[in-house]
Design a protein that fits this description.
The complex is a heterodimer of chains A (about 160) and B (about 600). In chain A, about 40% of the residues lie in helices and about 10% in strands. With about 160 residues, chain A is α+β, with helices and mostly antiparallel strands. Chain A has two domains: about 60 residues; about 80 residues, Glutaredoxin (3-Layer(aba) Sandwich). In chain A, strands 2-1-3-4 form a four-stranded mixed sheet, with helices on one face. A five-stranded mixed sheet of chain B has the order 9-10-8-7-11. A five-stranded mixed sheet of chain B has the order 13-12-16-14-15. Chain B is globular. Classes of the chains: A alpha+beta (about 160), B alpha/beta (about 600). At the A-B interface, helix 2, helix 4, helix 5 and strand 4 of A face helix 1, strand 12, strand 16 and helix 17 of B.
Chain lengths: ~160, ~600
């Protein structure tokens, strides 16, 4: 955030208003850094440098330590992400039921590799170690929806629903 | 009060919801209201039945008829034919995979017959979001009993007597752990429930939390009383949103009824539970890492001693148990440690919930007494291997466990026999593999997992698993060298002996167990540059058999023009040009192309 409360698009807003609310909510909680970052990411989509700096200042935690926590957990992201998050399960049960081919089909369809975001910011493609829906293997999640018993042929149809 | 003549139970676990259970439920409510049956037939949303493969599941009581893979459009039929006319809808019944026989009744299905559902008793039968349903099944009686009739010492003794061992993987005696924390110095102590179920292929904790959350809460409160703690934390994976939601509801309801909070049952005992959401790090399932994570730090393990029982959360004595362990506690208190100890084997007591997955007919959760054989679990409960293929191995215990071959199928499933066989109980994931699974690839898969989840604190795990993974990768890509197997064994031995925490110490297990039982597959990869299962893409050789009709489709689809042949004549693949993409095999209408 700039000093004059201008966001990168030039609008005059207090970009940290939501951050203040989150920090106030956890002010009295012991060991609150991770829930604060989770709430911040929910609100802003990702953890920008500004958010991390602001959190460090307000919580009185060294920025290096916050950066350490953010990069340790796979849930936190330092870059903007797509509107729809695809998480393809690569767990054991899915692996033996052909998860690799599913991931390949999505990579081919979206023309991005795992870990990347499409240029139009519509999809971010990630892999996940297990979402605990092994009964439906192979599975993937798009946002909060689980899609199971997949075949590579089913992928274009599923993705089209989110485009 | 209206007389309810029938109940329609709809599974609302993660598996069934993603197969469309919510739509089915809405359709039932709508159809019943339309027919004016909504006063006499009650629709109940339940937790997981464990038979996720067949979801969405619907059970109609009083008959106990079990309908599988029910879709929105089937609801009309069930309402009109079953609930209105009293006839079973045959086409939606479960069919036994071996005999193809249709089984109408829940308890007669082979998947459930051999199970002993104690921890999972309520899952799928009560609405997990209504505390009264848990209480009606005897819930919170154990908490009442310990607070009004028992001393903390006698609670610890009862748990010791039961022989219960930790269900999270290590198998440490629970009663002993409670005793350590109880005897530790200090007035402030904590109870922590480890619900960071990260093992790929395990989902029993998720099902218990989604299907019967009060059982876990009750177990934690009993533990709090026994060790002298007034505060508890449940550390849940963020990947389990439904479990988190149901836990929040359950905690709130328990607080409203005075079963959590201050002065429970007027006994002067206080106990509060908070939920901490994980942020996606497998290593946080390790107890010291988990505590770091609750404190808001990087979840890195530390060396023990001191054990958490002496110095845990914020330096205070802390007792950490897994979800399933806590879920066992209420029945031990209610029925006594001796009763519990009468189930199972000499050193492994009670039941264990397994998650059956992979190439098996019945994917799902199965709770069985300790000491059952692997064969009974896979064939009698699991219904055998999919598509009539041949059994090859079962992977047990997740990334810390091992693969057992066919000759070990009659092994008794208990903590000690599994360790001896080179596997471990772990959290209870069972992944069944058939002849199309390559064991070197499986070992690589697990190593890849532990490697990327290694926290990097200790060198053996950080560097050692990386070197092992490099060797395995090169073997699966046809670059294996003489001496690679010996190098893997040496690295494995050193990592096991020197890594800081359980993750590192057990990371080599999948490699060691596959080397022990499937060494010939490693040798085939290294010496013959061949993958016997045909799973390693870079080693696969595609060949066209006599079944070829010469249609030319494969030739057209081949991206590198490796296929030649005349129309109506046998086609041939030039192995030197082939990039093993598999496009020809997928396209061939006559199944004339083989891989191996």
């Amino acid at each position: 955030m700039n000093k004059d409360n201008k966001c990168c698009c030039g609008n005059q807003v207090n970009a940290m208003a939501q951050m203040d609310e989150i920090l106030a909510k956890y002010a009295e909680v012991h060991g609150a850094l991770i829930p604060v970052l989770q709430a911040a990411q929910n609100a802003y989509g990702y953890l920008s440098k500004e958010i991390i700096q602001y959190t460090a200042e307000k919580m009185n935690i060294p920025i290096s330590q916050i950066y350490g926590v953010v990069t340790f957990y796979s849930q936190f992201h330092l870059n903007p992400r797509g509107k729809n998050i695809i998480r393809v399960c690569q767990g054991t049960a899915c692996h033996v039921r052909g998860a690799k081919a599913i991931l390949q089909a999505i990579e081919d369809n979206l023309k991005i590799t795992a870990g990347k975001t499409t240029q139009d910011l519509n999809f971010t493609l990630e892999t996940v170690a297990c979402i605990g829906a092994c009964g439906l293997a192979p599975v993937l999640m798009i946002n909060d929806d689980t899609h199971g018993r997949l075949t590579p042929e089913a992928i274009p149809g599923i993705l089209a629903k989110y485009s | 009060m209206d007389h309810i003549r029938a109940h329609v139970l709809i599974c609302a676990g993660t598996g069934c919801v993603s197969s469309g259970a919510k739509k089915v439920e809405a359709a039932f409510r709508e159809q019943l209201a339309q027919k004016g049956l909504d006063k006499e037939i009650k629709v109940v949303e339940t937790g997981c039945h464990g038979f996720c493969e067949m979801g969405p599941l619907v059970i109609v009581y009083p008959e106990g008829v079990f309908y599988v893979r029910v879709q929105e459009e089937d609801v009309k039929d069930i309402v009109e034919t079953h609930l209105f006319k009293g006839r079973i809808v045959e086409r939606l019944l479960y069919k036994e995979p071996m005999t193809l026989e249709k089984v109408p009744n829940y308890s007669d299905i082979s998947f459930y017959k051999k199970q002993m559902r104690m921890v999972l008793a309520n899952c799928g039968h009560i609405n997990p979001e209504i505390i009264e349903e848990y209480v009606a099944e005897g819930g919170y009686a154990a908490l009442g009993k310990v607070l009004t009739e028992m001393t903390p010492e006698s609670v610890v003794d009862e748990v010791k007597k039961s022989g219960l061992r930790g269900r999270g993987g290590g198998g440490f005696p629970t009663g002993m752990k409670w005793g350590f924390t109880r005897n530790a110095q200090g007035t402030k102590k904590y109870v922590v429930c480890n619900a960071d179920e990260g093992d790929p292929g395990a989902f029993m904790d998720r099902s218990v939390l989604e299907g019967d959350p009060h059982r876990v809460i009750e177990g934690m409160a009993v533990c709090g009383y026994a060790i002298g703690a007034d505060e508890g934390y449940i550390y849940v994976r963020a990947e389990y949103p439904l479990a988190i939601k149901r836990l929040k509801v359950a905690i709130q309801q328990a607080e409203e009824m005075g079963l959590l909070g201050d002065n429970i049952f007027g006994s002067g005992f206080n106990f509060h539970i908070k939920i901490k959401e994980g942020a996606g790090a497998f290593v946080c399932g390790e107890e010291t890492a988990l505590l770091q994570s609750i404190e808001g730090k990087r979840g890195m393990p530390r060396s023990r001693p001191p054990f958490p029982a002496i110095s845990g959360l914020w330096g205070k004595p802390t007792n950490i148990n897994n979800v399933e362990t806590f879920a066992n506690i209420p029945q031990i208190i209610n029925k006594g440690g001796d009763w519990y100890a009468s189930i199972g084997t000499e050193k492994s007591k009670g039941t264990k919930v397994f998650a059956l997955t992979g190439r098996i007919n019945h994917t799902g959760l199965a709770e069985v007494p300790m000491g059952i054989t692997m064969r009974e679990i896979i064939y009698d409960i699991g219904g055998g291997i999919q598509n009539g293929k041949k059994f090859k191995a079962v992977q047990i215990g997740g990334p810390s466990g091992g693969c057992l071959p066919e000759e070990m199928l009659d092994l008794s499933v208990d903590y000690d026999s599994l360790i001896q066989a080179g596997a471990m109980m772990g959290s209870g994931g069972l992944v069944v593999m058939d002849e199309t699974t390559c064991m070197v690839d499986v070992a690589k898969f697990f190593l890849n997992f532990t490697q990327s989840e290694s926290c990097g604190k200790c060198t053996p795990c950080r560097e050692g698993t990386k070197r092992m993974l490099e060797i395995l990768t090169r073997i699966t890509e046809g670059q294996g060298q003489e001496g690679d197997i010996e190098k893997l064994e040496k690295l494995a031995k050193n990592i096991k002996a020197t890594a800081l925490c359980g993750l590192g110490q057990t990371a080599p297990n999948p490699v060691l167990s596959t080397l022990r039982y499937f060494r010939h597959e490693y040798e085939a990869h290294i010496k013959e540059k061949r993958c016997p299962a045909g799973a390693c893409a870079k080693l696969a050789a595609y060949n066209i058999t006599e079944a070829c009709k010469g249609c030319g489709l494969c030739k057209k689809v081949c991206p590198v023009e490796a296929i030649s042949g005349e129309v109506k004549g046998l086609h041939v693949i030039d192995q030197a040009v082939c990039i093993k993409c598999g496009a020809c095999m997928a396209k061939c209408p006559f199944k004339a192309i083989t891989k191996g």
